Amino acid sequence: MTNAIAFVLSIFIIMPFLVYLLLFSITKWLTGNHKYAVNLAVYCSTPFVIGSVYFLMLAIWEQSFLWLILILMAFIGIYLAFYIWKNNDDFDWQKIYRGFWRMNFALFTLVYGILIVFGLLYSVIRSNS
After folding, report:
1. Where are the alpha helices (DSSP H) in the chain?
2. Are 16 and 49 in contact (CB under 8 A)?
3. How much of the chain exceeds pLDDT 70, in percent?
4. Please, is 12 exposed, middle or buried when counting C-beta atoms within 10 Å of its C-beta (0-12, 13-18, 19+)?
5. Contacts of 65 (CB under 8 A, 6+ apart)
6. Reduced to 3 states, what is the DSSP secondary structure of residue 65?
7. What is the pLDDT of residues 48-63, one digit of tens each?
8. Whole-model pTM?
9. Could you read off the pLDDT of 88-101 as tens digits, one per residue?
10. DSSP label of 92
């Protein structure tokens, strides 16, 4: 049973878009609300995308870059808090939270795609050398 749970979790970490598609499809089917389904899928799949980036970096460079990921996320949060404060003259914590998750999803999805391509090319070049 433990192996089955580990297998399912590893699939979700390796393929975060499977998590996104599953959540989107189920939510859209249950509620019929497209916008709500997209938002829920983004919010729930963001930790899987971040985890995938972490494990891809670990697999490619055989070194943990968790510190870099945490610093990047902190800068995103600080930037958004400052930006929203400057534009609204007040902290709107709900906007900051939503923006934080959305920006993390967008950034780490981009990094995930780059790391997939880089990892494949790096692996091919390393195996031919």
Report:
1. 2-14, 16-31, 34-61, 66-88, 93-128
2. yes
3. 97
4. middle
5. 54, 57, 58
6. coil
7. 999 999 988 988 898 9
8. 0.87
9. 878 888 889 999 99
10. -
